[in-house]
Design brief:
This protein is mainly alpha-helical. The chain has one domain. The protein has 6 helices and no strands. The chain starts with a helix and ends with a helix.
C-alpha cells in the first residue's frame, strides 16, 4: 500500500509540474507554442490561434490546480481531463519525438486516473 501511495504521489507531482509549467509558459511565451496550434482550428472556430494558445494554457493550469485539490473525485476528473487533453494533442503532432513524450505523459495520466 505504501508503494501505491508513493507511485500516486510521484505521478501527481509529475502531471502537476508538466501541465502547470506548460500552461504558464503558454501565457509567458505564446509564440513558442503557436507552431503546435493547427491552423484549421482558427478556420473552424473563428477564434485566432493566439487565443487558442491562451485557452489551452488556461485549461492546462486549471487541470494542474484541480489535481492538487484535496477531494478525490475532483482529482480523478482532473486526471481524466488530462487524458482527454493529451489524446487531443496526440492527434495533431504526427509521429515524432514530441509524440513519444506526449504518449508517455498520456500513459502516466491514465495510470494516475486509475489509481485515484
Amino acid at each position: 500500500m505504501e508503494r501505491e501511495k508513493a507511485a500516486k504521489g510521484i505521478l501527481m507531482t509529475a502531471m502537476v509540474a508538466v501541465f502547470g509549467i506548460f500552461g504558464i509558459d503558454k501565457f509567458a511565451r505564446p509564440d513558442v507554442w503557436l507552431g503546435w496550434m493547427p491552423p484549421w482550428l482558427a478556420d473552424l472556430s473563428g477564434i485566432s490561434r493566439e487565443t487558442w494558445i491562451m485557452i489551452t494554457g488556461g485549461i492546462e493550469v486549471f487541470l494542474a490546480a484541480a489535481l492538487l485539490f484535496p477531494h478525490r473525485l475532483v482529482r480523478r476528473i482532473a486526471a481524466w481531463g488530462m487524458v482527454a487533453h493529451l489524446i487531443a494533442v496526440l492527434t495533431q503532432t504526427g509521429i515524432n519525438d514530441i509524440f513519444v513524450r506526449d504518449l508517455g505523459l498520456l500513459l502516466s495520466a491514465i495510470a494516475l486516473a486509475l489509481l485515484l
